[in-house]
Every structure is written in structure tokens, then in C-alpha cells.
Design brief:
heterodimer, A: alpha/beta, about 15% strand, globular, B: alpha/beta, TIM Barrel, eight-stranded mixed sheet, four-stranded parallel sheet
Chain lengths: ~325, ~425
């Protein structure tokens, strides 16, 4: 809590939605993290409930399967007193042929206060946000952004290292398909960290260096003297020859084990957005290393960051009077 | 091991540009001294006055049929054929049964080659699993276990996206990708060069453009990925020109050709001679001359035998049913020397295409006469005239259209790691 000082707390967040990290200022990010810091403490108490969002409605609108992110938003919303509804859209309207915009209009007519949206197509969450009156949180759109993941990663790092600026962070693995990588690259660069990406060329998009990262194709070189190693999940359909020949080869050259980790700083920490493929991108010993692996902390920080996010977008800290309904025939 | 002094040979070392008479001393498996007059009282002496001594030939494209079709060729018989032809290092294509797409097959081949103790054998591994052109092989592990490059053998890697990923993945580990450059969707069921001969014979034809189309596509992908790319057995003027332009643009591109493409043209098919059925097909005289020019001006880096052994059952068939390919290990040197005897190239340049250039492309520490280098050598007489006799081949297969062809130049002795593995009784 010592980090939560002065100006940052008073910074007003000037965006209606949280669609991505791209476009946020260092002050915006600090504001999220400072607020989230407080919720970490709250979440560790027996009595966790707040009434900040009482009367507000949060709809979790997931067009793509998710357990951990959806649950994390659900817990965050409930702890702040909101009414949380989970919609698994993948099994309802999409199947019936409704367009995304129609779904957005339908949801909007129910007057939610926050929509948390995940969608398999890049840019879809933004499209939806343009059609609704409430705040929208991007919980992951295609291979584009996953801003709350980057914020929770940042909070995890900041609490452990005391800062973000000046750190060297290596993001390793399937950068090509990863929204987590894109959000983290944007956030870490904004906060003055030095970002590296390490992957076989088949898993790196062209011109990735234009995003302000140093590119490596060898784990030994890429991990040399880094403070943080972020591993990314390699989805199984991508390791059968299209992008990577096999899990065996992938682990041999790009999986994180103690041998490769030895190149990093002695106090380097390990992160993974989950869910992990043990023995594919990360060895079990490293993943379970209680001193160096932050993987379970990341999940804890996730709830806190999402509470901060809901407070900022829907909490109206400035005591707005409860919404009034226009009287009929008034 | 003891010492061997080769006395008075014409020493030919393209890597250093050396072409002068002198002695060469072998100590154990390595070259101990080169040039001038060497005194070595304890060494066995080979009198080599009038003969040429060059690095052993490095044949970057052979099919050995082991495992899977040992009745056509094996590591042992292919090794015998190689050393009789002056070849001390050869690289096998992965189109065996099973194909070389798994580390265990690479290790098997290495063990069999060690046991045979003839020519050194390296292997390419498949670029795609099962040579099916779909999924990447474990290139990193295969390379770590000895595969010197990646190719789908006698099949083109046809799908552009797959090829892009092969190149991109290969670039990650700085590996060589070798393409059989023929656009299969254009070649279709064709089996000979498109033109008058195909028309007269009524055979399905492959247009020469099938080669350059695939190469031009690949060069664009090389431009994106930066991978090391090698086009095998070039046979057309257009393809050679495309490679030349790519080299001028600085792309990491190399190519080879094989003796049939400069020693023969499509007329060799004559009356449906299946021994002249080869992939890519024999081309027009105009293209053949372009291959000679490409070799002479250096656009074509290497000459490989493209050794493709087939038993009689595979060739004594109607033309369309017969297999593609020619055995070449034992005729590689005399056919290549035609380029020298016909005054197209200097002897040293011909030897460069057969030794130092392929070794450099493959990054193998052979193909040069240098103190400390492996003593892999060929001693040959460049001049005597003789006729090729396919019955004399040590290869298990005799499928070559060169029977009775008069040639000049013959291997006298082949040395691998200081051991004499072949010697022709004079």
C-alpha cells in the first residue's frame, strides 16, 4: 500500500470502456493498479463484500469458452455488490444466427451497467461497445487485446518487484495468436519496462519489432539477464505440425525448464496466464517453484484488478445519485 | 594409422585456388602437409605423376533406397558405387521407407554408414511429416542429430503456406531447405518435356515453366523469411535466370544441376527409352546449353549425381509406367569432366562444383585440401578415353542412358579419412 500515493488516486479515468491497453497513459495504468492494490487486501479478509455496485447489473457475455476469466469477473462483480449474470453466448444466440450487433442491442435494452465481453474475433468487442450505452470491458478479443490480463500481470510484478519501469521482461511462445502478449507488450512499454519476445519464427507475426520489442529465436539468448519470464500457452491444435512440429521439439527448444531459466537473473520470476500445458511450454518443477513462480498470484491479482476495473467504469466514486426512471406519461 | 605420401600429383584445391604440381602427405585420417616436395621417410609413397589429386567429391543429392528397398541399393552398395566414382561424401534424400522424418531413422543411417566404412553418408530429413507436404517435421531435433538439410526429396513442397512455414521454421535454427522445383499442379501427369518430341511420341508433357514458376514463388517466400534455400537439379534457362537475379539481390539462394541436364537433351528419349525418363524431364538443346552456361558463369553452384537407382522391374515397362531417375554416382566425374574437355570450364572450376561448393552449401568440413582437414581425396587421370559400361557399375542398379558413351577421365584411387577405399587396377 506504500505505493499508493497522492496524484495517481485522484486521476480520473477518461474512457467509458476498457477495450485495450493501447491508448492508456501511465497514469491510467497506475490508477488501476493502485486501486487494485487495495482490493488485494480486502479479498484476503473474511468479510469481502462491498456495496459499491449495489443495484448495478454486470453481464458476462462470453462468445468463447472461458472458465477462469469469467469466474474472476463474476467474483469481482459480486464482491462489489453488483448483480452478475453469465451469458454463454456461444450456445445461444450465435447458434441461432443472430448478428453481434443484434445481440448488443438486445443486451442494451436490458439496461446493464457493465458488459464484460469475450469474442473470438479481433475487434468484435469494440464493435459491440459502439452499440451500447453502458461500459464495456474487453475480456479478450481474438488475437488482439486482453487488457485485464495485462493489468493483473503488471500488478503481480509491481507487488513483487516494487516497480515496472526498468525491468526486462521476456514474453515467450505463441506471440502470433496471443492477445495476452499484445496487451502486455503495450502495458510494459508504456510503463518503461524493456520487452523481449522469444519464439520460433512460425509463432511470431511479421513486424513484431515495430511494437517496441527485441526479438529472439533462442531461449538462451532471449532469457539472458531478464527479470521476468512470461510463458504463453501453446494451443494443442498449433503444435501438430502447422506452426510447430511436435510438443517434444517445442519443449526441447522453447519450453521453460531450469536449464533455460539459468540464463535469466537469479531472482527472475516466472509467469503464465494459464491454463498451462505442463511439459509443453513449461516444466512442472518450474511452474510449481514456490519461490519463483507467480502463476497462482496472478489468479489472485486477477480478481483485485477486475474489482478495480469495475469500480472505475461503473462505480461512480463521486456519489452519483441513483438513476431515476422517467415517469410514464409525465 | 600410418602415413601416406602422394607424390608429384597435380594438386587441385578450388577453395584456395591451388592448381599446381606437388606432394601431399596424409597422417592418419588428416592431411598433414600440402605442396612442394615433402620428405617423409616413414610414409608409404604413391607415385602420382600425371594424375590429379583433388578433394573427394561431395555429392549433395543421392537416393540410397535403404531402408525399404535394399534390393535396388543399400548403404553398402551405394557406398561402393560412390567410392568407385571418387565420391567421398554424399547426402541421401529422405524418400526411403520409412522416410527420414524421425530422429531414429537419422541415427539408423549414421550407424549403417559407420559400419560400411566407405564414403561418408549424411542425410537430408523430410521437411514435412511422411513427405506429405502438410505438417512440419521436428527440424530442430533432426538437425541436432545430424540431418544436414530439409527437403521432401523428389516431391516439391507444393503448398505455399506450408512452404512459408517450412522456411520460417528452418530460419529459426538457420537450416537449409532444398526444393524439388516443379509446380505439380502444372506438371500434372506429365512425364517428358513439352515440345515436339512429346507431341510425336504422344507422351504427356511438362512445360519448362513448371520449374521457374515454383522457383519464383519460393524466392518470394525466401524474401519474406530469409531462410537458406537450395533449388535442386535445375534444367531450364528461365529457372537459372531467376536464381541469378535472386543472387544479385543478395538472397541466400543456391542451386545445383545433375549431369543428365548438361550431358543430354530430350532427344535421348529416342524410342521411348525409359532409362532417359527422369524428373525433371530432359529438356531442349537450348535449355541444355543454358545449364552449361549457368555452370560456367557460376550461377549453378554445384553438380550432384541425382543418383536414383531402380531395378529392372521399375524400368522395363511402358514409358508412362516406368520410374523416374538415373544412377549417377559412378559417372559423375567423367560426365562433369566433359565440361572441361569441351572447353566450357577450367578443371579447377569443374572440381569446385563437385567439392568445395556443395560442402560450403551443406556446411560440411570437407571438400578442400588443407592442412588438418579430413584426408578425403580423389586421385584421377583427367585424360584417358573409355566407354561407360553400365554392367561394370558397383551399384545394384544399372539404369543409366549412358551405356557405351565415350568419356574422358577416370578415378584411380579414392581415400576417405586417410584410408584407401577404392583403387583401380591399372
Amino acid at each position: 500500500m506504500g505505493l499508493m500515493q497522492g496524484a495517481a488516486c485522484e486521476t480520473a479515468f477518461r474512457h467509458r470502456h476498457l477495450l485495450g491497453i493501447e491508448g492508456l497513459s501511465p497514469a491510467d495504468i497506475e490508477h488501476f493498479l493502485d486501486l487494485a492494490d487495495g482490493y488485494v487486501e480486502l479479498n484476503r479478509q473474511a468479510e469481502k463484500k462491498r456495496s459499491l455496485l449495489r443495484g448495478r447489473t454486470l453481464i458476462n457475455c462470453f462468445f468463447e469458452n472461458s472458465t477462469r476469466t469469467r469466474t474472476s469477473f463474476e467474483v469481482a462483480g459480486k464482491r462489489l455488490g453488483a448483480d452478475v449474470i453469465n451469458m454463454a453466448v456461444a450456445v445461444s444466440s450465435m447458434v441461432k444466427g443472430e448478428t453481434l450487433i443484434d445481440t448488443a442491442m438486445t443486451l442494451n435494452a436490458m439496461h446493464p451497467d457493465v458488459l464484460v465481453v469475450r469474442h473470438p474475433e479481433s475487434g468484435a468487442v469494440q464493435l459491440l461497445s459502439e452499440k451500447v450505452d453502458c461500459a464495456v470491458v474487453n475480456a479478450g478479443d481474438g488475437s488482439h487485446e486482453h487488457p485485464t490480463q495485462a493489468l493483473l500481470d503488471a500488478l503481480t510484478i509491481r507487488r513483487r518487484k516494487g516497480r515496472l519501469g526498468g525491468l526486462v521482461v521476456a514474453i515467450c511462445g505463441d506471440i502470433l495468436h496471443s492477445r495476452v502478449a499484445r496487451s502486455n507488450i503495450a502495458l510494459l512499454n508504456t510503463m518503461g519496462a524493456r520487452v523481449r519476445v522469444v519464439a520460433p519464427r512460425t509463432l511470431l507475426p511479421i513486424s513484431i519489432e515495430r511494437l517496441g520489442v527485441d526479438v529472439f529465436h533462442d531461449m538462451g539468448e532471449g532469457l539472458a539477464d531478464v527479470d521476468i519470464v512470461m510463458m504463453l500457452r501453446l494451443q494443442s491444435e498449433r503444435m501438430r505440425g502447422s506452426f510447430v512440429p511436435s510438443t517434444r521439439e517445442y519443449f526441447h527448444f522453447f519450453g521453460l525448464d531450469y536449464e533455460k531459466l539459468r540464463k535469466a537473473k537469479p531472482d527472475a520470476l516466472i509467469m503464465h496466464p494459464g491454463p498451462m500445458n505442463r511439459g509443453v511450454e513449461i516444466s512442472s518443477e518450474v511452474a510449481d517453484d514456490i519461490d519463483r513462480s507467480l502463476i497462482r498470484h496472478q489468479v489472485e491479482m486477477g480478481v483485485a484488478v477486475r474489482m478495480a476495473c469495475l469500480e472505475i467504469l461503473a462505480g461512480d466514486v463521486g456519489n452519483r445519485p441513483p438513476p431515476t426512471f422517467p415517469s410514464l406519461g409525465g | 594409422m600410418n602415413r601416406l605420401l602422394i607424390r608429384g600429383a597435380r594438386l587441385l584445391d578450388p577453395a584456395s585456388g591451388l592448381d599446381s604440381p606437388g606432394d601431399l602427405l596424409i597422417d592418419g585420417a588428416r592431411i598433414a602437409a600440402i605442396g612442394g616436395t615433402i620428405a617423409a621417410a616413414d610414409a608409404e609413397v604413391v607415385a602420382a605423376e600425371g594424375l590429379c589429386l583433388a578433394p573427394g567429391l561431395v555429392d549433395m543429392r543421392v537416393q540410397l533406397r535403404e531402408p525399404g528397398a535394399e534390393h535396388m541399393e543399400s548403404i553398402e552398395s551405394g557406398g561402393q558405387a560412390a567410392v568407385a566414382g571418387g565420391v567421398t561424401t554424399m547426402v541421401a534424400l529422405p524418400n526411403t521407407e520409412p522416410p527420414v522424418d524421425d530422429v531414429s531413422v537419422v541415427e539408423f543411417l549414421a550407424r549403417r554408414a559407420r559400419e560400411a566404412r566407405l564414403a561418408k553418408i549424411h542425410t537430408y530429413a523430410a521437411a514435412t511429416k511422411g513427405l506429405t507436404g502438410r505438417h512440419l517435421t521436428e527440424m530442430g531435433l533432426l538437425s541436432a542429430n545430424g540431418a544436414v538439410g530439409f527437403t521432401d526429396g523428389t516431391k516439391a513442397i507444393a503448398d505455399a503456406l506450408v512452404m512459408r512455414r517450412v522456411l520460417s521454421y528452418a530460419r529459426t535454427f538457420d537450416l537449409l531447405v532444398v526444393q524439388h522445383p516443379e509446380e505439380p499442379s502444372l506438371a500434372g501427369a506429365g512425364e517428358v518435356n513439352e515440345g515436339e518430341i512429346a507431341t510425336r511420341l504422344g507422351l504427356a508433357a511438362i512445360p519448362p515453366a513448371a520449374e521457374v514458376i515454383m522457383i519464383e514463388r519460393d524466392l518470394r517466400l525466401v524474401e519474406i523469411t530469409g531462410a537458406r534455400y537450395h533449388a535442386a537439379h535445375l534444367s531450364t534457362a528461365a529457372a537459372i535466370e531467376a536464381i541469378q537475379r535472386a543472387k544479385m539481390r543478395g538472397l541466400p539462394v543456391t542451386c545445383d544441376t545433375a549431369p543428365p541436364y548438361f550431358a543430354l537433351n530430350e532427344n535421348a528419349i529416342g524410342d521411348y527409352r525409359t532409362f532417359a525418363k527422369v524428373s525433371p524431364p530432359l529438356r531442349s538443346e537450348w535449355d541444355r546449353r543454358a545449364v552449361v552456361d549457368g555452370l560456367a558463369d557460376g550461377t549453378i553452384d554445384a553438380i550432384a549425381s541425382d543418383h536414383a537407382p531402380w531395378d529392372q522391374d521399375s524400368k522395363r515397362l511402358p514409358f508412362s509406367s516406368a520410374a523416374y531417375g538415373i544412377v549417377g554416382l559412378e559417372t559423375l566425374l567423367p560426365l562433369s569432366l566433359e565440361l572441361y574437355h569441351n572447353h566450357h570450364m577450367s578443371l579447377l572450376d569443374v572440381i569446385a562444383r563437385l567439392t568445395s561448393n556443395p560442402a560450403q552449401i551443406l556446411r560440411l568440413p570437407v571438400g578442400r585440401l588443407a592442412t588438418g582437414a579430413p584426408a578425403d581425396l580423389v586421385l584421377f587421370d583427367p585424360d584417358p578415353a573409355w566407354r561407360i559400361c553400365t554392367d561394370d557399375f558397383r551399384s545394384k542398379s544399372k539404369n543409366a542412358p549412358f551405356d557405351s558413351r565415350p568419356v574422358q577421365g577416370r578415378v584411380v584411387r579414392t581415400i576417405v579419412d586417410g584410408r584407401t577405399v577404392f583403387e583401380r587396377a591399372c
